[in-house]
Design a protein that fits this description.
The structure is a homodimer.
Chain A (H helix, E strand, L loop, with lengths): L2 H16 L6 E7 L2 E6 L2 H6 L3 H9 L2 E6 L7 H11 L6 E7 L4 E6 L2 H5 L4 H10 L2 E6 L6 H12 L1 H15 L10 E7 L8 E5 L4 E4 L17 H5 L7 E3 L5 H4 L2 H6 L6 E3 L1 H20 L8 H9 L1 E3 L6 E4 L2 E7 L7 E7 L4 E5 L23 E5 L12 H17 L4 E4 L5 H15 L7 E3 L3 H10 L6 H8 L11 E3 L4 H9 L4 E4 L9 H8 L6 E4 L8 H6 L4 E5 L5 E5 L3 E4 L9 H9 L7 E5 L3 H15 L2 E3 L6 E4 L1
Parallel strand pairs in A: 2-3, 5-6, 9-10, 10-11, 11-12, 16-17, 17-26, 18-21, 18-22, 19-20, 19-21, 22-25, 26-27
Antiparallel strand pairs in A: 1-2, 4-5, 7-8, 7-28, 8-9, 13-14, 14-15, 15-16, 23-24
Helix pairs in contact in A: 1-3, 4-6, 12-13, 12-16, 18-19, 21-22
The complex binds zinc ion (ZN) (5 copies).
Amino acid sequence: MSTVDKQLETVRATIADEVPNRISISDVKYEGPELVIYTRDPREFASDGDLIRRLASKLRKRITVRPDPEVLSPADQAREEISDVIPEEAGVTDLDFHADTGEVVIEAQKPGIVIGRHGATLREITQKVGWTPEVVRTPPIESSTVQNVRNFLKQEREDRRDILERVGRQIHREPMSDDEWVRITTLGCCREVGRAAFILSTPDTRILVDCGDKPGAEDEMPYLHIPEGLGSGATSIDAVVLTHAHLDHSAFVPLLFEHGYDGPIYCTEPTRDLMGLLTLDYIDAASKEGRTQPYDSEMVREAIKHTVPIEYGDVTDIAPDVKLTLHNAGHILGSAVSHFHIGDGLYNVAFSGDIHYDDTRLFDGAVNDFPRVETLVLESTYGGRNDYQTDQGDSERDLKRVINETYERDGTVLVPAFAVGRSQEIMLVLEEAMRNGDIPEMPVYLDGMIWEATAIHTTYPEYLRDDLRDRIFDEDENPFLADQFEHVDGGDDEREAVADGEPCIVLSTSGMVTGGPITSWLEHLGPDPDSSLVFVDYQAQGTLGRRIQNGQNEIPVGGGSGRSNTVSMEMNVETVDGFSGHADRQGLENFVRTMNPRPEKVLCVHGDESATQDLSSGLYHEFNMRTFAPQNLETFRFL
Amino acid sequence: MSTVDKQLETVRATIADEVPNRISISDVKYEGPELVIYTRDPREFASDGDLIRRLASKLRKRITVRPDPEVLSPADQAREEISDVIPEEAGVTDLDFHADTGEVVIEAQKPGIVIGRHGATLREITQKVGWTPEVVRTPPIESSTVQNVRNFLKQEREDRRDILERVGRQIHREPMSDDEWVRITTLGCCREVGRAAFILSTPDTRILVDCGDKPGAEDEMPYLHIPEGLGSGATSIDAVVLTHAHLDHSAFVPLLFEHGYDGPIYCTEPTRDLMGLLTLDYIDAASKEGRTQPYDSEMVREAIKHTVPIEYGDVTDIAPDVKLTLHNAGHILGSAVSHFHIGDGLYNVAFSGDIHYDDTRLFDGAVNDFPRVETLVLESTYGGRNDYQTDQGDSERDLKRVINETYERDGTVLVPAFAVGRSQEIMLVLEEAMRNGDIPEMPVYLDGMIWEATAIHTTYPEYLRDDLRDRIFDEDENPFLADQFEHVDGGDDEREAVADGEPCIVLSTSGMVTGGPITSWLEHLGPDPDSSLVFVDYQAQGTLGRRIQNGQNEIPVGGGSGRSNTVSMEMNVETVDGFSGHADRQGLENFVRTMNPRPEKVLCVHGDESATQDLSSGLYHEFNMRTFAPQNLETFRFL
Ligand SMILES: [Zn+2]
Ligand SMILES: [Zn+2]
Ligand SMILES: [Zn+2]
Ligand SMILES: [Zn+2]
Ligand SMILES: [Zn+2]
């Protein structure tokens, strides 16, 4: 008998002790980080509101209770009974019954009403029909990504349950080693912005944190092939943790499955969907630019299938000796500061991922409140000694000034923006500015995946700021549905017409001008001195965006279709930096300053060489902690 | 055609250009780091004294010329002709003809005379008989180790040639990577004394430097199993370099072959023989102490078969991007400071191994004169801020005082000593002291492998100090043959008789009292307050030696044969530290101070935590270089 099976025996015995005799337990197994209890008496189980909580605290595990399939009421009958229980205003749009697990997935416009106060409505459903309800939100703006992911997961349900059971057994295996150490290996993202990839390892466990590309340097992948990377095979990795969906963190996650990885990916639910959107676009762009696709779209589906979504604040076992907790990072939708608790109080490491320390219109500022963190791996994008950003209020005034000036010249304002990240922030600024009359009403064209990304934002309002969340639920108040937002879907002819037409604002990907529709826009608008190009986010070294910022005035356009021209850059080029998704130097320092307790060691990564070194030396002098500006390919040992 | 074969084509063309037409070349191939040229005209080749040198400088390779087997004169005839050429006083003891390679191995008491001035006699031999002479020394003291190694290598000649050809092709393969980096991974020996094991890696090459055990902590092996160790298989290592034969550097080298390693071991010839001696004894001791043998003696033979011996100062290609040069380390016979030149002027790393900076009776002080070293990995055994040793003159006086005092009490002087290392130094001190009348003439018993190790020393006098080398060749002057030295070979009865008999001196292994005959000696002598136990070398933490030094007065004896008693320790315990094989703090600083140029970075290893940290901080403050006291399991990147 394997150690996991032995351990499950003990768990079963404990459950038998705790659960009253009248409730019969038919099976107990692991599914990913959760312990699933099958019962022949789901109604009785549900009637004791505290039983699950007691079991969870006794077993120190996350627990899900499911009815034994044999005791379920028929789906048709259950459908009617459920409809009777859920109030009308919940806006149920779909009920999906899965007889194999006794789960019913309820898609509703207002999930909170389906759940009820402290889960009362859900318990009532279980008591009535036996089925276990699971609630998802109906996207307020239709999102093909969300729909595709949900359909795909529904279709792959069985496969997914096998994966989760395997992952569950892996997580709950017996630790093998008596040694105690914690190490971080840098496979990328050191003294550079991009190709984030770190291995966090203990004697028992190896976790890959992020696996991204390097914008502007397509051939510089993370060093996956070195022995301490995937050198001894992708199966040497126990888990992948994805801090957020930006490609410099996620682009090569699907590739892992091509290399034979078959384990879990832990991230938030929006990160999963955004990763799907962005990586599919990533391989599509590679094809269009005549590069070899780094992997097939099948691998993106594998990645989605292997994702175990977790919510902010949930402490989750991801290995026998590692607990993971994700916290809001304030950077993009679903972005997470990832906190690892290792051993039983042995050591704690937090990876900041990309963070924004102050609140923005979209998000609360990054969480930095952990019971313990000995080592912090901190992004340093704006860690340079002079990297202080304008206050967002000033930035908004500045942006509105540029828009007004351009409008008066009859020009067009072109904003290169990441589909996911600042686009939605800028949309909120523009919507309010027009509403308040700070800038004239004019169309705002959204090109590339910005519209789709916005739809995903509205699907997960619990990841947004409170007031914004509330507005989204009120259709008349949803700022993303304002009339002026136009989705560009007519291709290059539409772009040319827009560019030659009335004054307007264009938000287009890619955010660093490395490809995508922004190139078309530049072809049409570049030579127009009345129009303005406005950078609102970080431009990495080696990208065209950075070169334009630095004054390059001949720019290549065309591309995919074989043309390879240049246009002369006559546009008014402006940088309005307060909208960055990244904390500035002050924000990074504040993030560390306000931690309590502060970490003993900080590794400054995800920044140019000078930014990481400046931040490292700044934190050392200010807080008297051990700080490092690692290089790629190094291994640091803690403990 | 492989890249090696293409490259060999070019080499052949160059040789054809350089060699006069009258000399016909029948084959050119790699054997280990050497290029072997087979010729049908060995005599003509040998007659041009400068031809090989010209080829070597043109091809930048080490070159060996061998006769095509078809043109050899018959062995019987050659034997006579060779005997005619070599002067009588060379003392030839064996001639061994190998028709497959056209080599004749000449074993002689005075190899220098066989070689002749600038190799004149050797060339004369080739001209006369066609065979290529190779000269080895007849051990002045019979050594079963040397004899076994030589017989074994003779018997495995064919296998060995296959190995060397394979190694040669590996060395001369085309480098694959455009990346440039140099890394050191610590698998052991950091903040501890023992289990030396480092991986030096470039994008193309991974070299394991040393692979030893940890005295006093048998279960603490080097971290070979981690991914960046042998995690992706022992064949991921291209070469092993062994700095010297002490078990804390060599014990697990044979184990590599059990793990599937099949590549070369680079070290000096005496290191090879001593490694054979010490590792065989190591597994033997494990059995005797009831531990599992870490590997079979067959693996020791594999290690010997895979050894490519190199001489001090010879620059040797060991990988497409790495040249190795060994230099005298002054620590034990054949010990080497190992200098790695990486890329074409890209980077240089030196591993000190264990060093003695000042001259001793046995050896010149360690070499620290390299054209370039950017990073030095430096031993720190006595790196602590107070680790200053007594001057050897004072130590000798001190040792003589203890001997005289003990003699006057009618006691016995017991010296725990490494078989290889300080034993021979102490023998030289004792021989001179008795000759000069500083101490009374009395027997000096050599127990454990000391006698055999001494025989190996006399086989390789070119690794000893000049004056000692000269004395060894003169039988009447050979200090190791002095009458008072007695080889203990009668077992425990003999020991008891000696211990109960007249005053005498006993040198016995193991040097840190972790096992071996020293235990018997302590059983007999421990309770005798008139006798003295004298420590002359470093006692690692966790060893019985260290505990006795620290005052432990109940000591376990017996052991192997099932008994497990203790005796009370009444002996006079003394530490005379000036004989250490290791540089003291001053010596380590001097080693660095007198380097020119000095390294940019120093990694302080092979010392207790405080010793490495003290040395690291001392070197930083004194020389303003970047210094580190690494932990095990870390990876440092240079470049
Ligand atoms: Zn790969
Ligand atoms: Zn990001
Ligand atoms: Zn990033
Ligand atoms: Zn040594
Ligand atoms: Zn050593």
